[in-house]
Each structure stands twice: as structure tokens, then as C-alpha cells.
Design brief:
The protein has 165 residues and is mainly beta. The protein is built from one helix and six strands, in the order H-E-E-E-E-E-E. It has two domains: 35 residues, no CATH class; 108 residues, no CATH class. It has a three-stranded antiparallel beta sheet. The chain has a three-stranded antiparallel beta sheet with strand order 3-4-5, with no helix packed on it. The C terminus is likely disordered.
């Protein structure tokens, strides 16, 4: 699959209806603004693969692979996908693209009851939280997740229960 690339970060331009009304001349200025708007529309919402993370790691705000746009945390929604109930083994680098080797044993004792008990990437600061729950030792901070970011330019991610109206 080919990757779309842009040489500059596109922006949005508001055009008056009269600029593109029937019977009116279509100027090169208006055509350039329409072109900019279509490029912006192509990258306004992106899904970006962030790599593999463990508990306590921090996911950095992504950079668009299309045009190099630096997203802020407020423009991102992180989606963790459970990869394993075991934490990564030594030698793993947070955010690596390939699945990490996993630890040889679990710190929890007993049977794994709920997997995962808690799996989250904080949208405000990128902090990864993962817990598994064991029948004898209770909650343990462990696990490995694959993380995707849904990014929307020029948007604000509102806390749960807050309406944008």
C-alpha cells in the first residue's frame, strides 16, 4: 500500500458562497483554496499506529506520517489493545513497532480472574495503566498493549460527561 505524502501542512480556508456561485468566474485564488481544503480534509482525521507499551510507559503525541504535523494530546484518542497479560521482558523499548519478548513469569499468584482489569492510555498525558487481577495476590501492574491513536486536527478531546454544545 502506498503512503500519501504532502510537502507542507495543509490548512482550512473559509470560502464565501459567492466565490463559487454559478455564473461567476472561478479564479485561480479560489481554486488554490479549494485544493488546500481538499488536502486538509484528507488528513483531518488520521489513525496512527503507536507501537507496543507496558504499564507505566508514556505514549508521546503522534506525528503525522503524511505531512509531519505534530498532534497535541488534546487532538488524540488513544486505543489500547491487549496483547498479553504478561509484561515485556528486559530489552523492550516503549513504542517499539514489533511485538516485544514477554517476561518468563507473572508476578501475580493464583488464577488470572479478569484480563485486563484495567487497560487505559490517559488522553491528557499518554500515561499507560494496566492491571490484571489474580485470585490470590489481587491486582498487579502488568501486561502489554498495542496502541493506536485516532487523531483529529484542530479538535479538542473533552473529558467524559462534558458536552461540546
Amino acid at each position: 500500500m502506498s503512503q500519501m505524502l504532502m510537502s507542507s501542512i495543509p490548512g482550512f480556508f473559509d470560502l464565501a458562497d459567492s466565490a463559487i456561485a454559478g455564473g461567476q468566474p472561478l479564479t485561480d485564488y479560489t481554486l488554490a483554496k479549494i485544493s488546500h481544503n481538499s488536502k486538509f480534509g484528507a488528513v483531518r482525521c488520521e489513525v496512527i499506529y503507536m507501537g507496543f507499551y507496558g504499564p507505566g510507559d508514556t505514549v508521546s503525541p503522534p506525528v503525522s506520517p503524511v505531512d509531519g504535523y505534530d498532534y497535541s494530546y488534546q487532538e488524540c484518542l488513544f486505543i489500547p489493545i491487549l496483547y498479553s497479560s504478561r509484561s515485556p521482558a528486559a530489552g523492550y523499548v516503549p513504542g517499539q513497532a514489533t511485538p516485544p519478548a514477554l517476561a518468563n513469569n507473572d508476578p501475580g499468584q493464583g488464577n488470572l480472574i479478569v484480563c485486563p482489569y484495567q487497560l487505559d492510555v490517559n488522553d491528557a498525558n499518554g500515561k499507560v495503566t494496566m492491571q490484571t487481577y489474580w485470585s490470590q495476590s489481587g491486582a498487579e501492574n502488568q501486561g502489554t498493549a498495542k496502541v493506536m491513536a485516532i487523531c483529529q486536527r484542530l479538535s479538542v478531546n473533552l473529558p467524559a460527561g462534558v458536552s461540546g454544545d
